[in-house]
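== Item description ==
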Amino acid sequence: MTNNLPKGSKKLLNAWAFYDWANSVYSLVIASAVFPIFYGALFNKANIETVTIFGGVIRSTPLISYTTAAAFLVVALISPLLSGIADYVGNKKRFMQFFCYLGAVSCISLYFFSLDAIYTSLLSYFLGLIGFWGSLVFYNSYLPDVAFKEQQDALSAKGYSLGYIGSVVLLIFNLVMVMFPQIFGLGEGGEASLEAMKISFVTVGLWWIGFSQYTFKHLPKGNKTKHKVTRKVIFNGFRELKGVYKSLSANLSLKRYLIAFFVYSMAVQTVMLVATYFGEQEIAWGGEDEKTLGLISSILIIQLVAVLGAIGTSRASAKFGNIPTLIGVNLIWVAICITAYFVVSPLQFYITAGIVGLVMGGIQSLSRSTYSKFLPDTEDTTSYFSFYDVAEKIGIVIGMLLYGFIDQITGSMRNSILFLVVFFGVGVFLLFRVPRN
């Protein structure tokens, strides 16, 4: 039974933030760490580099890049629809639960991922991604419902912290299970480690469903008055985006910054999504156990260093200004992509991962806060941030498609990483064009 907790109450705020603890395991275990290692291991075990799908032959890494791009395209298209409904419907908790369970069950179904059933396997991965991002649309829209304005910044940070801690806890557990499967009665060797990885997908789904119940128990249903969802309501989100787009002509600083953000964010998000696949395929680890331990250790390094990077970037922006700091961070990204082309040893990969962590956390937090500073004096910040999010998702689609295409035609992810230098370079040029006043 749902409790009607008053807005701003400690219990309600904690319940909202706890959803980050529940769902962040997806982004770390599935999107970043264990699944990419498992995916590469399947192809290594079968001793193949390509699969036949939809009548064509495609390499493993472009295939997952294209699937990811397709999922983000769906997310970019449905996000404004969901936002419009979330602002209006009387029971948005049901929508949030639907996407939560869709994502979690899809993660559990990854247990059956195989090259023999590649279509249904990729569908599980595809739906997991949509479930994760779809639930976030409604989760984020709850923030002004549960917290007063003066509470929102701290509450958002609390959710991020809980998500970070929870995901690292489960990742470490899964790492122990993958590296020492005999402790869990799974046997020894490569097959046992693969089985442990498959079980880790199940733990993500169960963790996500289980811990989200506390959030769903205490979150309000939504608006007290139920409204009928009409065609006008469904497309309201797109109308809001169109209104924001039109308003850009009157705000040169915001317009130029958004264009710059779109270009460099395309590259940043692509690197974040493909880093583990790159490490799995291009680095000389020695053996499968060394590879698994090395890749997951690299992800943990990035996670830990990202927090320091966000703090450091924040201090740099206070001293030098947002735009100059963003220009500096983008130049570091250029150096990272050029260096990555030549990285072959585990030690080189660890060092590169550490530098990625420093600039990854910083560029994301600083980009969003810089955007908020350029916004006009308006109460309708939701529409502007919806526009920002959609721009970011479309950037991911373009970035992943280009990355996959170059990987496919050249036969190497190194060429794709090197190509991203172009986006960071253009991003720097466009940032110089943003008026500073």
DSSP finds 15 helices and two strands in the chain. Residues 184 and 263 are 46 Å apart (CA to CA).
